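Complex 418.
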Amino acid sequence: MLDTMKHLVILGAGTAGTIVANASRHRLPSDWQVVVVDPSARHTYQPGLLFVPFGGPTDLERPRVDTFAHGVDWVRLGVSEVDALGRRVTLSNNEVLPYDLLVVATGCRARPDLVEGLTGEGWGTRQHEFYTLDGARRLASALDGFRGGRLVVNVVDTPITHPMAPLEFAFLAEAFLTARGLRAQSEIVYVTPDDTLFARPLAAKRLGDLFAYKNLKVVTEFSTRAVDGATRTLRSFDGREEAYDLLVSIAPHVGAHWVEAGAWGDARGFVRTDPKTLRARAMDHVFAIGDATDLPCAKAGSVAHYQANVLVDDLARIAAGEDPVGGFDGHASFLVETGHGRAMLVDYSNDVEPQGGTFPLPGIGPFTRLEETRANHWGRTAFQWMYWNGLLPARPMPVPTHMGLVGRELPPSLHRPY
Ligand SMILES: Cc1cc2nc3c(=O)[nH]c(=O)nc-3n(C[C@H](O)[C@H](O)[C@H](O)COP(=O)(O)OP(=O)(O)OC[C@H]3O[C@@H](n4cnc5c(N)ncnc54)[C@H](O)[C@@H]3O)c2cc1C
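Predicted structure with flavin-adenine dinucleotide bound:
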């Protein structure tokens, strides 16, 4: 029988893929089939991983089948190849899936095995990661047994998913060790390959002031060459060394292997993507979203959400025979945990630097930009409920997709220093 349906195929059902699938099912006409491809049975709420090492809740997973709207078809297989000219995807069982429109949302993952020595002697005892649930749990045991010493947080290379997470880890470690009476006999050292704590100067200044206030040491421009688990030493390419008693490493991130193999990805497997339209460059009918792209904006769930709003509008336009308009502005919003029950909102876009003021409602909030507040912390902790019940089901959320200037103030560092 002739297939008269049109097919939107979404590769990857993480944060971005699930929002796009659910929102598209609501927006596209009924002669469009919405298919999502993902081999893994469970969906993890990744922002919750940050709290696991400090005794936070570990119930961060849901059956993936429960995250899809009625009418979304889930193919529980991996992707092994995309033929963009033939408009078809080869699945891990060699079956072929044709598409009219394709969205690549396969995210990225940290690869500790790419760092010399990291996964050798001491891996899981002295050297840890917290970007997976198993890793975060192991780190929780290690921190529970930590009796003081040098705790080093090392970002090996960028980009990584959620560039704030390692900074938040350092802040939370400070609060954790203080609460346990171990702060005086501990040193917390943040080792980064960059020359600053964050890519945006105002936020970097604010975070740097807070690091200094909390007596957290920062080592910049440290390009990690190797980890020596036997002597507990981190070595850089320019011959510097940092000793550790406990190392928390954020390993280099890579995209999907089949993207790397194709002409349309960069060397790390990130899809070359137009920053405004989210079209995969040089590929017709292919879009990319979330952590899978090579865009310079942050790899983060909030970014994936804002991108999804722009992309789904365009998918609906294309389905209606209209031209897509794009318009993603690089908007990112982070509630950054700073410890002791407080967090700081950092909100910016490609064109607008982080500033002070309230968000999302001017003058009301409840969140405050570039200030540590309890309301910001409550927002961060309450977000898990919003994630499962608002964000993933693609319900309207009370946050603007595009960055605005209303409600902004001068940088708070100008009138309220630490
Ligand atoms: C510790 C931590 C804390 C974080 N905190 C925050 C925060 O506070 N705020 C924030 O905005 N963001 C945060 N993030 C980042 C956020 O979770 C990610 O940016 C977001 O999940 C990216 O969504 P994505 O859909 O692009 O990728 P993912 O959610 O990672 O989904 C990718 C999906 O693709 C699937 N997949 C992979 N390969 C294939 C394949 N070959 N075939 C089919 N499917 C495949 C995977 O199974 C997965 O389901 C945090 C991340 C971490 C690790």
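DSSP finds seven helices and 26 strands in the chain.
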